[in-house]
């Protein structure tokens, strides 16, 4: 009988076929029918007494309910206080209330201005929600926001700036025409735009098209400040960093400013240099001949600073590929083997960055067989397969990893180019020992 009870228990715990609990229970009843021990076991299973409550569950329920009641009382007090000053909220003059409502509104995580008042209507009523929207929209015209480079703490955005961005987003979403703004309003809007997270607001493009001089005058000082920020380990991801991915209208307005500063002085940070070069090349702000001469001069002065050299050289390759390759081949003959290795390593590292899908400017060399034909042997000579790093387990790739990956990709890029020139180049490379 003991074995029979164990088998019966196993059957009762078996999941019902296709979820048919009724048929499964009927099957179990048939098995137990006529066997008193099994019948009693089935009866106990079906009429199990309710579990006793956990000793502390009652206390926890009371504490939870107390918290809920306290929250309800706070919400009632908050609503009463907001109702007292609803007119000032609507006028945009009660900043504390506007800030409180912003924090209780539905907010996005990718930008400050992505905010809606739908949740406010549920919590505080239609009147307060509508007053919040009106107040946010009114507030931005009353405050002159400090741009990132003007703030003592770049990594902290004042609450008033955030409220202004919310108001501007709501205004433009409601159909505000950038051309209807006067110069002072446009200037304020541009200063707010410089403070947005991750990228410029979408409304900066029509603003740049309608008020190009105002946008240039407002943003140029911030661009220059970002370009000339000292290389002290501080991450500067403000106006300059957003510019390569900005709308054409914004880049076109600011490219002359970037080009002028780039010609006048070298950015201390290599990353700032890369952003500036992306803007200048993408917008053609410097004539090809002038840019080639500038790149030659800066590369010549950066041979000992390999990352800076590679950044300039890759940009030069996009503008004047033959001139850049001629210069590199001459440098290879003039410096020590270790210097050559470091230069080619950083060039490959830079080409890898430029070839990634998130790159801000396409790598034109990928489509140029004559460039790849000259570049491939040089890379293979100095980034030797025998020295490749073979990692085991999880690792963070470094410049050498990127270099060996690019070395392999260069041949693939050449094979992807259509036309007889690419085919002939591949044949010549295959015959090169």
Briefly summarize what is shown.
The protein has 433 residues and is mainly alpha-helical. The protein has helices at residues 2-13, 21-32, 36-46, 57-84, 86-91, 95-103, 118-124, 126-139, 159-173, 183-193, 204-210, 212-227, 239-242, 248-264, 270-283, 288-300, 306-319, 321-334, 337-355, 369-382, 399-416, 420-431, and strands spanning 106-107, 115-116.
Structure in words:
The protein is an all-alpha fold and 433 residues long. A hairpin with a 7-residue loop joins strand 1 and strand 2. It has a domain of 221 residues. Helix 14 crosses helix 15 and helix 17 runs antiparallel to helix 18. The chain is built from 22 helices and 2 strands. A two-stranded antiparallel sheet has the order 1-2.
End-to-end CA span: 84 Å
- Number of helices, counting only DSSP H or I runs of 4 residues or more: 22
Residue fraction in strands: under 5%
Strand order in space, largest sheet: 1-2
| Helical percentage | 55-70%
Number of strands: 2
Q: What's the rounded overall pLDDT mean?
A: 90
The outline comes out as: flat
Radius of gyration: 34 Å
Largest sheet: number of strands, sense, barrel closure: 2 strands, antiparallel
Structural class: mainly alpha
Instruction: Provide the succession of SSEs.
Output: HHHHHHEEHHHHHHHHHHHHHHHH
- Return residue spans where pLDDT drops below 50 for at least 5 consecutive residues: none
């Amino acid at each position: 009988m003991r074995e029979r009870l164990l088998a019966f228990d196993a059957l009762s715990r078996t999941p019902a076929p296709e979820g048919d609990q009724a048929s499964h229970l009927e099957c179990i009843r048939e098995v137990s029918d006529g066997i008193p021990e099994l019948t009693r076991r089935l009866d106990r299973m079906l009429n199990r007494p309710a579990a006793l409550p956990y000793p502390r569950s009652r206390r926890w329920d009371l504490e939870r309910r107390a918290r809920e009641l306290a929250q309800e009382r706070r919400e009632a007090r908050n609503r009463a206080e907001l109702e007292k000053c609803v007119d000032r909220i609507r006028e945009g003059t009660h900043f504390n209330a506007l800030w409180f409502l912003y924090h209780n509104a539905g907010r996005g995580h990718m930008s400050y201005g992505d905010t809606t008042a739908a949740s406010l209507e549920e919590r505080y009523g239609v009147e307060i929600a509508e007053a919040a929207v009106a107040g946010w929209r009114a507030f931005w015209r009353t405050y002159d926001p400090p741009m990132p480079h003007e703030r003592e703490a770049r990594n902290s955005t004042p609450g008033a700036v955030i409220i202004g961005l919310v108001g501007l987003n709501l205004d433009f979403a409601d159909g505000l025409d950038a051309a209807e703004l006067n110069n002072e309003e446009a200037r304020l809007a541009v200063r707010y735009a410089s403070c947005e997270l991750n990228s410029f607001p979408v409304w900066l493009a029509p603003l740049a098209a309608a008020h190009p001089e105002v946008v240039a005058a407002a943003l140029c000082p911030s661009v220059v400040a970002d370009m000339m920020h000292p290389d002290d380990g501080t991450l500067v991801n403000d106006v300059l960093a957003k510019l390569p991915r900005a709308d054409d209208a914004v880049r076109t307005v600011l490219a002359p400013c970037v080009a002028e500063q780039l010609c006048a002085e070298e950015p201390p940070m290599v990353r700032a240099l890369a952003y500036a070069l992306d803007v200048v090349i993408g917008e053609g702000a410097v004539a090809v001949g002038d840019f080639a001469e500038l790149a030659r001069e800066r590369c010549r002065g950066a041979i000992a600073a390999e990352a800076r050299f590679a950044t300039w050289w890759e940009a030069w390759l996009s503008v004047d590929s033959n001139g850049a390759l001629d210069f590199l081949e001459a440098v290879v003959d003039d410096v020590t083997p270790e210097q050559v290795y470091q230069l080619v390593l950083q060039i490959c590292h830079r080409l890898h960055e430029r070839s990634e899908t998130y790159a801000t400017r396409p790598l034109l060399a990928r489509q140029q067989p004559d460039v790849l034909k000259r570049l491939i042997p040089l890379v293979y000579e100095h980034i030797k397969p025998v020295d490749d790093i073979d990692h085991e387990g999880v690792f963070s790739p470094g410049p050498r990893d990127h270099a060996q990956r690019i070395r392999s990709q260069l041949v693939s890029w050449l094979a992807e180019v259509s036309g007889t020139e690419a085919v002939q180049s591949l044949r010549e490379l295959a015959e090169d020992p």
